[in-house]
């Protein structure tokens, strides 16, 4: 249990740039170069990501920045004037399937459950951002699996439509008969033969 461990004196493992006590709104105010410089060794970088950030803090900018090209959205649960649930609802109303991770301070289980029920991919507590890399990795893997499943469903649907079209439009009589001898289906050419 790490709660009884002492802070290390090893410099490589100490929080840098005040990151151990930074507010999320302060972090979001950093420019891209500040972010890169100050987060070298961050959970995302340790997980092998080299993030390119776009920071928005109001609904108008958020709506303008939404794009299918986004890999993941990190949203502050309690950003003043525009919170994560509002951002999530806008994302869902646009029909976009982008992993959405909510970052929050201490909240109750009811709030977390509501976020997940509304469609959030995951949530992180602000004091446990060390899990950010693994949360992003899992969200991206889940998105990839969902995309593959959707492609398979679409391919199956397309194949069924092709089969149905060939079956229905064939000038040759086609009849599907079950093992018990009952006709399961027939095309129009068969129906013409049977009823003429």
What does this structure look like?
The protein is mostly helical. The chain is 45% helix and 10% strand. It contains eight helices and five strands; from the N terminus they run ααααβαβαβαββα. The protein has helices spanning 24-28, 32-38, 43-46, 59-65, 84-93, 109-118, 132-169, 188-194; strands at 73-76, 100-104, 122-125, 175-177, 183-186. Strands 1-2-3 form a three-stranded parallel β-sheet, with helices on both faces. A two-stranded antiparallel sheet has the order 4-5. β1 (73-76), α5 (84-93) and β2 form a beta-alpha-beta unit. The radius of gyration is 26 Å and the shape is elongated. The model has no long low-confidence stretch (mean pLDDT 82).
General shape: elongated
- Proportion of residues in β-strands: 5-15%
- Run of helices and strands: HHHHEHEHEHEEH
Structural class: mainly alpha
End-to-end Cα distance: 83 Å
| Strand arrangement in the largest pleated sheet | 1-2-3
Q: What low-confidence regions span 5 or more consecutive residues with pLDDT below 50?
A: none
Q: Could you tell me the mean pLDDT? A: 82
Percent of residues in helices? 40-55%
Count of strand segments:
5
What is shown here, in short?
The protein is mainly alpha-helical. The protein has 8 helices and 5 strands; from the N terminus they run ααααβαβαβαββα.
Give structural attributes.
mainly alpha; 196 residues; 10% strand; two-stranded antiparallel ribbon; 45% helix
